[in-house]
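ok trying again, last paste got cut off:
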Amino acid sequence: MADITNTFAGIKSPNPFWLASAPPTDKAYNVERAFRAGWGGVVWKTLGEEGPPLVNVNGPRYGAIWGADRRLLGLNNIELITDRDLYVNLREIKQVKKDWPDRAMVVSIMVPCEEAAWKAILPLVEETGADGIELNFGCPHGMSERGMGSAVGQVPEYIEMVTRWCKANTRMPVIVKLTPNITDIRFPARAAMAGGADAVSLINTVSSITSVNLDNFSPEPSIDGKGSHGGYCGPAVKPIALNMVAEIARDAETRGLPVSGIGGITTWRDAAEFLALGAGNVQVCTAAMTYGFKIVSEMIEGLENWMDAQGHASLDDVIGRAVPNVTDWQYLNLNYVTKAKINQDMCISCGRCHIACEDTSHQAITQEVDGVRRFEVIDEECVGCNLCVNVCPVENCITMEPLAAGETDRRTGKKVSGDYGNWTEHPNNPSRVAAE
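nice, full thing came through this time. structure:
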């Protein structure tokens, strides 16, 4: 059986599945139930500074995007950090960590961007016996308007400064949670690393409005006829998260920086993809809120079964394996040629491939052959774009088949080269021509 025990930024847990800082980790009752279900660790819902508890709205806090089958694809929230008393949270954290010593206990923190505020809260968290802290520089709503959350995360200099404060004033590993609401994720990641961060976690939620109520013309969720932008998460943000994790993993300046992957992880396969792109573990929120804590058992079993089938003995065999295969467009092999192929035995003759190709692509799929409804690929027109594969409702009915070296591409009339050739050396590249 594959070994999925995990050590992330020096923090040990029985598996790489942590619950992210959010409503599921807001109190001891939740966290204890999560640990009983099998979660390897939690990031406790974000704590604020000492004083009157923060005030959340008392109405709806979520907006949603669903698929055709009402499956949740994206969740928007306008919830803020914990609205429970700081010392109640600290007592519960201490007790849960004492009762579950083998589970990772990381505490998310967000206080004003002042050194005194960070110095005040760090020893309080440290006294609980927590394994580490996560600096919440990602929240895009409510707290950012107060100069915290993504208001800090969008300024690399602030990230580095606060990270240095924390590293100088605590024994605990410091994880910096990054906002995706920025042009280039590498800059805040580099700043965190320069400040001495032990790791980064990403992505936090994407600033968004999911929908508008067309009865009262307010954004959802509607609070007394008004709405606000919130933080978007769930399966819909997974592609954004994967790209940002990969950017950090392959950047020369941040390569080797531990990354906790967050964003739309719902299945073991999602988790494996994050690990393959360089994440050292993963954090989950929306899936738990949608399906409950027991979903982790499916994630654990699925990951173990896949690793066993592939011969991966430990997570180290998986982490970062896909990173060398992530490249920039200009380095893709332009001599690699594929054509779509339709399996006629599997085809249900729905015509979606033809419609998509005919109306929006390259007119490379027939509608009828010899007067009979039949969908075939016209190799002379097919550019290998694979749109047909993605609109076909039957899995593996349409596949992309590469042409072998020496074969003639009927579209261009040229023989396929077996040599690698990219845009940087292509004769049509004006930069290449100018260089000569």
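cool. The radius of gyration is 25 Å. The longest strand covers residues 41-47.
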